[in-house]
């Protein structure tokens, strides 16, 4: 029998830093219902083992806990087609019971239903050190998920370290099942007819499920070239700008079921051959977003015009200072996003211009998403898109406005829907 053990709060539903005391406060985490469905579809039994000491403390009653549980199970059954088995311990540590995790009483109860369990071939998925200790006591493999109240920094001080770390319950399930992420490359195009074929030819097709090109009212044969390459093509009737183009790109990719979205300019400035390296941290659950940074390459490889290099480094230093980050650059146009990251930020509220790239970074930072960087080689020349000095100056001023707006939001001087 194949079986998976889970904690509840912080894995399936949002951890409120206290017990969920009524159904109105219960919020399924993004992707958790899909994760349960994938496990059931793969033939797994699912056991939820959760400490609920709030009952003994008088925060809520057994009847209220049962009501929450029944509503949760109904919703899971509606989505996943089946109900998991649920076992709760309602004691406190002081009660010294046999069922409160990391003790194994709840799992003995599960054995009463499922018989002898081969724990060494099972996983326990949780968001606390207590869960990792429980897995060790069982002899099971442990997966720590970052969707609860603990982060990577917390893990460093734990005595019981997890065997694996994943961003979410869904990422953990994808790892267990060896699930192949659906990767969609999006190309925001404007007058890219001369470079599109070269860009497309260098894309490693075995790592990509679909390529979508969004044409921003080009004046050349970009659309015709894209159709000859059998790309999915969307065409704006009028120019919406670089940011407006990206909004269409991401909206369409999410609609097409992308798990990972790669932003690749069709001007052949960035090297498409590194897509496997770009998506790898997301597939492995080690990042939500990955940037291909020009600044991680040596100057002779980077080949960036001097004025661009100086402005890039100056603005990046300023943004790092304000956001408390240490990125090598904020201005790359070559990125990979997880589905969760894109769905969690209001990118449609961003600018239709080039500053969109910086706005979405601030949004992702504000939400606490993990961003990694890898190096990339770039090309500069007459066929590659480039912004003039004056437009670069306007871009820099726009970034300062974004940072100022973010600070007003952060310190609650003037709240912004864009960064909620």
UniProtKB/TrEMBL annotation:
Entries under SUPFAM superfamilies matching the protein: HAD-like (SSF56784), Nucleotide-diphospho-sugar transferases (SSF53448)
Record's keyword terms, sorted: Carbohydrate metabolism, Cytoplasm, Hydrolase, Metal-binding
Gene Ontology biological process: carbohydrate metabolic process
InterPro entries referenced in this protein's UniProt entry, alphabetically: Glyco_trans_2-like, HAD-like_sf, HAD-SF_hydro_IIIA, HAD_sf, Heptose_bisP_phosphatase, Histidinol-phos, Nucleotide-diphossugar_trans
Glycosyltransferase 2-like domain segment(s): 185-344
GO function terms (MF aspect): metal ion binding; phosphatase activity
One of the record's GO cellular component terms: cytoplasm
Subcellular location: Cytoplasm
One Pfam family hit: Hydrolase_like
Similarity remark: Belongs to the GmhB family.
Protein name, entry field: D,D-heptose 1,7-bisphosphate phosphatase
Taxonomic classification: Bacteria, Pseudomonadati, Candidatus Omnitrophota, Candidatus Aquitaenariimonas
């Amino acid at each position: 029998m194949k079986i998976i053990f889970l904690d509840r709060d912080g894995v399936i539903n949002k951890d409120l830093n206290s017990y969920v005391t009524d159904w109105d406060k219960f919020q399924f985490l993004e992707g958790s219902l899909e994760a349960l469905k994938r496990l059931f579809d793969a033939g797994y039994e699912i056991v939820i083992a959760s400490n609920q000491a709030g009952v003994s403390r008088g925060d809520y009653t057994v009847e209220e806990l049962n009501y929450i549980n029944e509503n949760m199970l109904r919703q899971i059954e509606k989505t996943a087609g089946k109900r998991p088995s649920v076992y709760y311990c309602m004691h406190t540590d002081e009660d010294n019971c046999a069922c409160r995790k990391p003790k194994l009483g709840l799992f003995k109860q599960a054995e009463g239903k499922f018989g002898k369990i081969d724990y060494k071939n099972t996983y326990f998925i949780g968001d606390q050190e207590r869960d990792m200790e429980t897995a060790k006591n069982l002899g099971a493999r442990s997966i720590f998920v970052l969707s609860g109240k603990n982060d990577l920094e917390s893990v460093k001080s734990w005595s019981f370290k997890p065997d694996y770390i994943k961003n979410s319950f869904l990422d953990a399930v994808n790892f267990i099942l060896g699930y192949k992420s659906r990767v969609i490359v999006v190309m925001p195009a404007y007058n890219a007819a001369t470079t599109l074929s070269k860009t497309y030819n260098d894309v490693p097709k075995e790592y990509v499920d679909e390529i979508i090109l969004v044409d921003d009212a080009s004046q050349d044969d970009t659309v015709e070239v894209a159709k000859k390459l059998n790309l999915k093509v969307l065409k704006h009737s009028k120019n919406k700008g670089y940011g407006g183009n990206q909004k269409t790109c991401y909206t369409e990719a999410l609609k097409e079921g992308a798990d990972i979205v790669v932003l690749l300019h069709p001007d052949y400035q960035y090297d498409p051959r590194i897509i496997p390296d770009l998506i790898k941290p997301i597939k492995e659950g080690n990042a939500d977003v990955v940037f291909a940074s020009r600044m991680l390459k040596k100057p002779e490889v980077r080949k960036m015009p001097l004025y661009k290099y100086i402005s890039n480094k100056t603005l990046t230093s300023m943004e790092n200072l304000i956001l408390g980050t240490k990125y090598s650059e904020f201005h790359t146009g070559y990125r990979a996003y997880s589905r969760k990251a894109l769905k969690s930020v209001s990118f449609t509220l961003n600018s239709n211009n080039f500053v969109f790239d910086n706005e979405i970074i601030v949004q992702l930072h504000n939400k606490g998403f993990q961003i990694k960087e890898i190096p990339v080689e770039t090309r500069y020349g007459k066929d590659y898109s480039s912004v003039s000095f004056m437009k670069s100056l306007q871009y820099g001023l726009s970034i300062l406005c974004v940072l100022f707006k973010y600070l007003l939001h952060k310190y609650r001087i003037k709240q912004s829907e864009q960064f909620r």
